Amino acid sequence: MNQEKMDQVVVITGASSGIGRETAVQLGRRGARVVLAARNEPALDETVREVQQAGGQARAIPTDVSDWEQVERLARAAVNEFGRIDVWVNNAGISLYADISETTPAEMKRIVEVNLLGEMYGTKAAFEQMKGQGSGIIINVSSALARRSVPLQAAYCAAKHGVTGFTESVRLELEKDYPGIRLVEVLPSSINTPLFDHARSKLGLKPMPIPPVYEPSVVAEAIVHACEHPQREVVVGGAGKAFVAAQQISAGLVDRYLLQGGRGVRQQKSDKPDDGRDNLFQPMPGPGSSTGDFGEGARASSIYTEALEQHPGRKLALAIAALGGTLLLVRGIGR
Predict the structure, then answer these.
(1) Catalytic annotation, pick one of 97, 121, 156, 304
(2) Would 22 disulfide with which of 43, 106, 216, 261, CB 3.0-4.6 Å?
(3) How many domains does the chain contain in total?
């Protein structure tokens, strides 16, 4: 990755752990000024220290992104501290593992408030500042599950699908009236973050990411790249891209794959007991961490993401070549 210094002010929600925390540290290494938001204040303070040790400047603003007034306050604090907002990363998220029979209306509401409304509020707050600047980048972190749902995470998948719909709509508005403001959607594959420690589980076991799994640094690198080279969307990890592509080819085939032998449920259950703690309504205590408990065998890089997803021109050329090859094949068969 290009390690040139960055003269940017970046707001990151969900910065106390996982992808948000790793992104903050990577930006710190580039000398960026970051404003960090999450509910867990001690963990935010730890992230601030890590960013400073990496060479960046940081300010922590404890924030619950489901509350518009707190998100609006976060934007004001960033401007008061550093004078502007160049990039806003909507990354905060929570999760619940349960089937519909065990999911309560209150749990559904909370997932949507944080994972969907939180990103909508963040986009709105960032836009209100950026429109006066005439420029800026808003990065909405969704998921490969925004394009293809799995069992046990219905509310989470619904919220992430909502992020895609919201992002596409606002992007069109910005391109028409505020072309200097760019909107990016980042769709990670399964990532080894503390999300699975923090999730509410009704499985009787600790949930786990569907393999293959990537380290948070892979997503953070893609976000940092998007801070300087914004594009429509970035799917992080070849596994996630394959999942999304399979859904586009045949949703029914993916249904059968997930249902076969209970694969869709089985692959989300670890062999570790659930400790009964979660951050659905209250933040988890402790200093936080970038990585989770599923690092064994996790991939520390994605050749696909680096070679294609971060270079839209290459993706387009490959798609055209593939289409051309298909047409030639069909023509040959016709003869």
Answers:
(1) 156
(2) 216
(3) 2
